[in-house]
Amino acid sequence: MSTPWRATVLGSQVAELLRRPGRFAATGLSLLIAAFVVFGTVMAQQIITATVVERFRGTPEAVSLVVTPGDGEDIDEARLRAIRKTPGVTEAVGRIDGGSPLDGSAVERYLALSADPGTGALTQVRLLDGTYPSGPGRLAVDTRAAREYGLAPGSSLTLLQPEADGDGTRRVTVEVSGIVRGTATDDAEPTGYAPGPLLGELLGVPGYSRVDVRTDTASSASGSADPAERIRRAVPGAQVRSGDEVRQEEAREAVAEAEDTLELVTVFLAVAVGAAVLVATSTFRIVFTRRVRQLALLRAVGATPRRLAAALVTEGTVVGLLAGATGVLAAWGCGRLVPPVAGRFGHDLSVPSHLPLTQAVLTVLGTGLLAVLAVLAPSLSASRVSPLQALRSAASDEGAAGGTGRTLLGLLCAAGAAFLARQQYGGLPQPGDTEYDRFAALTVVVLSGGLAFLALIALGPRLVRPVLAAVAVPLRRTGAAGRLAVAGVGGAPGRAASVSVVVALGVCLVGSTLTCLASLNAYERYRQAVEAPADFHLYPRDGETLDRSLAADLASHPELAEVTAFRTAEVVEDSRGATLSDLDLGAVGSGVGLTARTGSLDHLEPGHVVVDADHAHRLGVRAGDRVTLEFEGRPVRLTVAATLPGAGPYGGNFFVPAADLTRMGADAAPTTVTADASQDDAQGRIRAQRAITDTLTGPERGEGRVIAEDSAAQAGEPDDLRTAATTVIMVLGLTVLVAVAGVATTASLTVVERKREFGLLRALGLGGAAVHRMVTVECALYGVLGGVLGLALGMPYSWLVVRVAETSAPFSVPAGELAAVFTALVLVTAAAGTVPALRASRTSPTVAVARAD
Fold this sequence. Notes:
- This protein is an alpha+beta fold.
- The chain has 25 helices and 22 strands.
- The strands form four sheets. Strands 3, 4, 5, 6, 7, 8 and 9 form a seven-stranded mixed beta sheet that branches. Strands 14, 15, 16, 17, 18, 19 and 20 form a seven-stranded mixed beta sheet that branches. A four-stranded antiparallel beta sheet has the order 2-10-1-11.
- α11 packs antiparallel against α12 (357-383), α14 (438-471) packs antiparallel against α23 and α16 packs antiparallel against α21.
- The model is unreliable at 1-7, 220-224, 394-400 and 704-720 (pLDDT under 50).
């Protein structure tokens, strides 16, 4: 008898699937989104890899073999000639990579140098203007060198090269013959190019660090030995690798940064997948609750709970596999469209050569597994329905706020989260602590946050009504629609919690990321103001002092701005050496101002001092305390006006007013002069450099170096941080997308389930517009509940993450951005209920007296 019953149960499920496909489409929507984003990430990796491999030209495609010295010595001209004479070798060029400082400026400039033939299949450059060097004393430069150093064909450069005996420096003047575009790395630094023999003579290098070889494939195929083996015989000890092997290695290095980003994205994708499972679980529960009469009839005709649960799990698996296949196909189609669309906007991307079949199959099977996980608990609950339910109308069991066991589990998770967070708070690092294991600490914070979220899931049904009572006060005063919306959400706290918790997860992660980014950006701006406050930093030569009129002379040039002079002196603090400075901290530039951890940096008064974080921690002082410094054997007692959150500018540890430093007996001559370029671009810095060169007419006036280059490199760090954070936020936005899909699904199923309720409201005189407004407000309330719970959970952990990641970073809450996220979320969740609300508004009053479907 088992087979007929199994056939009856499965047949009933198939008939239900065919009769009401909309319910199953809603059930699989979140799983479809999960499959789409997972396989979309795979396609993104394929596109990035294909683009980098195709465009990377570290080793030209024509290179068949790469020869490098195996004995630690460069390959000299004799060995290069031996390689060229090897049968099967068509062309061989030597590579040299070096560099040289440039003379003729008061600031330090550097030019990387690389050997390249300039023409032929093995060249790495393309000539843009002028001619490629063909004789001694000539050099081609790339576009970055031309832009930053103001070079053009016919310009001259003076290179500073060490003497042959290593003692002293010689000046070598070369003429710029042409401008070239370098490899696909897009000129990571200013670079000059010349053929190998000319560059070797210029640098005084006896040989080549590498030789690129192009072979005649036809002759090598017919020979008794391959060209690689012949080269090994001709040049004993040399290492010979295939060009393909070298290019693959270079490509792996080139995509390493992108792969790191994608690995980070993969971590957060797990969050989106988890959200999809939560939404799918809730949706399956609602669907099965709606079908309670059908399930009870199956029980009445002999279906056992076990077979009924198996049929429901099979149903969910089919839905998951179909959703996975659809999501994979959609992601693959979008991946094929991305390169041509990007090409229209000037971005050259490569189309993957083939469909990653293995990943596609794994994604589909993984989605099916997610469906099984999502449907398991609802199917077990639904399979235990009593046969007597066949005599009743379909009802929802979503109104309960959770059992005692669920509440105890939630409280246990909350206690564990609080314990781990408290332990981590007690062990936060102090300024200057280099032994702190931040990775382990962040792992504990993440574990605590995971337990807190589990507690939110378990306690969510009990939190819905209190939170709703607090946030829905204005809605109750907006009329019947508002009051009914609040009652509708509060009447099913389990259902409201299942949707709002997923929304809370997205808000928590997005809000925490924005807050951490704002805090770390604030610290990064502080760090830049400390490490590279100005474009130019002028300091005296050894044993000399700066001219007292230097700052005034520099300030007279319109090409320069924000010229500042200050003094530093050595003091003793608690038997340790430290640096005392009269730098005006309020005048430190770099586009930002310094901040104080305690006290205020404004109006530093006589007899007061500002202390950096390390010394403040070591001395145990804060604003208002007293410190004693020793200057030239005399004690100096000062009051702490403020402490810094990190290091002080230009390596200073203590900062006092200029008058105090003078009274201590310090020389009146400045020890450092800083200045900015009036125009913040490459040409502006070039003009500023020339102005400094014209001013520094004598060696006694000091030396200078460009801090702008260091500042640019450091400015790239927050850009990288911002790019990574933007990527993370976009991926976390997928969690919100899944949550919004859950809101739409829940609203759609609720409208079907509450037809009689809506019909009764219409019969009592509530208009269609009011019903529409009621359902829309209900969906918006899911966003409000999720936003409140998410921010309440995320802000404490954001503070803890910032403190663990960088102790000196100020905790900065981007209130405007968080308010924008909250508002957008409420509007999006309200919009998700537009279609269900429209269906509800069209419910006829006659439905109130009709028999439940």
